[in-house]
Write a structure and sequence with these properties.
Elements: E1 3-8, H1 12-27, E2 31-32, E3 41-46, H2 51-70, E4 75-80, H3 81-93, E5 99-101, H4 106-116, H5 127-132, E6 150-157, H6 168-172, E7 176-177, H7 180-192, E8 197-202, E9 209-210, E10 215-216, H8 217-225, E11 232-236, H9 245-252, E12 260-262, H10 270-276, H11 282-295, E13 300-307, H12 314-325, E14 331-336, H13 353-376, E15 382-391, E16 394-402, E17 407-411, E18 423-431, E19 435-444, H14 458-464
Parallel strand pairs: 1-2, 1-3, 3-4, 4-5, 6-8, 8-11, 12-13, 13-14, 17-19
Antiparallel strand pairs: 6-7, 9-10, 15-16, 15-18, 16-17, 18-19
Helix pairs in contact: 1-4, 8-9, 12-13
The structure holds iron/sulfur cluster (SF4).
Length: 465
């Protein structure tokens, strides 16, 4: 059986696309490999939202050329935003790439995989290959015992808002809202496959609408929540300006809604928000935060922030810092502005790199203190979490996610793993900036079930004997 290796750069949208590619490959008779050196086809699903992601993708293409020299039958495919943006340049810079598919050509990629499927002889994945690919990178879209539990369902692609820093509308095109029937059918299928949590994914997910019925994102979420068996519901990433009172009412009336809303602010300065073409002021943004809090007082609000955007003055940065220090965000993904060719901000005078780095460090420190305080508030509580899998730091511990998306790590109970009872009750003992640690005290098959006791870890039993 031929095998495919998929490496993903960038956002949740790319991760959802990689899962789609893996499913198309599996349907065409491929297995999904966990290492590049074990694959007949390698897919790089690229990102171009930041310069760093772009450079890493080109670097990876060059690394993988070494594998192709050892095994000329290997096929290297590039997809994602960089493929969309750089198709012609990529053909010159990386002529060894066998096929390039843009973000709207995934169906064609699936067909190409099916066409190649019979072309592969039984390759002996020799030591030469193994030696060549200790090159970094991580396989994606690989199924494990728990990967079906959290299912990402794409509801919308593209974006029509043209923020001046963002490449997405240029490479993914304008809004393309998926019809509700397709979304509901896929969600039903995921629930039947054992998904305990559905995460709706879109570049501007709450702008979703159905022209045929005039339904908005709130209506869509209500329809999804009414599906039999849906336990938890989340979504990523919304645009603040698309949260109407009606949508918030709809969302907050759903008992399955996870108490975490990602609300990308980008900057706390109105002048900068205007230059970014974000279409809201800080006061309007804060109004949405208050609207959420009125309805869901415990909701964790997380955000994205950009530092060093062209024209950012000391006062602009201070406005962002002050808002972050007010403690509004449970967590934030902060980035230094990165020039994207073809966007308006790329042509504007840039903030000196050293100054941007300095501001970034200050912002990180401020948000880390707030995040740590938020995590501290979990200590002493028992929280219900969904298993993700083994901890990256060692197989004796498991990683899970709480409903507010906080990472929780705990020693594995003796009778782990148990994908049939993936909800764990963890007594939180310590907090860190990255998340919390604790002890598993119960497990349940369904979110609403009472927790059953777990067996304590063997080492623990020996120590107390
Ligand atoms: S809303 Fe702005 S930042 Fe988000 S995808 Fe659209 S253009 Fe990019």
């Amino acid at each position: 059986m031929p095998s495919i290796y998929i490496e993903t750069f960038g956002c949740q949208m790319n991760e959802a696309d990689s899962r789609y590619i893996a499913e198309r490959a599996a349907a065409a008779g491929y297995s999904v490999a966990s290492a590049a050196e074990e694959a007949n086809v390698i897919v790089l699903n690229t990102c171009t939202v930041r310069d760093n992601a772009e450079r890493r993708a080109y670097g990876r293409m060059n690394h993988l050329n070494a594998l192709k020299r050892v095994d000329p039958s290997l096929r290297l495919v590039v997809t994602g935003c960089l493929a969309e943006q750089d198709r012609d340049r990529m053909k010159k810079l990386a002529p060894h790439v066998d096929a390039i598919f843009g973000t709207r050509e995934l169906a064609a990629l699936g067909e190409q995989l099916a066409a190649w499927q019979t072309n592969f002889d039984d390759v002996d994945f020799s030591d030469d290959r193994a030696l060549l690919t200790s090159l970094g990178g991580r396989g994606d879209a690989i199924s494990d015992a728990f990967s079906h539990l959290r299912a990402f369902v794409t509801v919308q692609r593209g974006c029509s808002y043209y923020c001046t820093f963002c490449i997405v509308p240029h490479v993914r095109g304008r809004f393309d809202h998926r019809p509700p029937k397709a979304i509901l059918d896929e969600t039903r299928e995921r629930i039947a496959q054992g998904a305990r949590e559905i995460v709706l994914v879109g570049q501007t997910v709450n702008a979703w609408n159905d022209p045929a019925s005039s339904d908005d994102f709130g209506d869509l979420c209500r329809s999804i929540a009414a599906l039999p068996g849906l336990e938890r519901l989340g979504f990523i990433s919304p645009h603040p300006k698309d949260f109407t009172e009606k949508i918030l009412d709809d969302l907050c009336s759903l008992e399955q809604l996870n108490p975490r809303i990602h609300l990308p602010l980008q900057s706390g300065s109105d002048a900068l928000l205007r230059r970014m073409n974000r279409k809201y002021t800080l006061a309007q943004f804060d109004g949405i935060v208050q609207s959420i809090r009125r309805r869901l007082p415990e909701c964790a609000i997380t955000t994205d922030l950009i530092v060093g955007f062209p024209g950012e003055t000391a006062n602009d940065f201070q406005a962002t810092l002050d808002y972050v220090r007010s403690g509004v965000f449970a967590n934030a993904f902060s980035f230094i502005y990165s020039i994207r060719r073809g966007t308006p901000a790329a042509r504007w005078a840039q903030v000196p790199r050293a100054l941007a780095l300095e501001r970034f460090a200050e912002l990180l420190e401020a948000q880390n203190a707030v995040t740590r305080a938020y995590h501290d508030s979990h200590v002493g509580r028992t929280v219900r979490v969904l298993i993700v899998g083994d901890s990256k730091k060692g197989a004796s511990r498991l990683t899970s996610k709480a409903l507010d998306n906080v990472t929780v790590v705990a020693p594995k109970p003796a009778d782990y793993p148990y994908p049939q009872t993936p909800w764990l009750d963890v007594a939180i003992e310590t907090a860190h900036v990255w998340g919390c640690t604790g002890t598993v005290v119960g497990r349940a098959a369904r979110f609403a079930d009472a927790g059953m006791p777990v067996m304590r870890p063997l080492l623990d039993l020996i120590a107390s004997a």
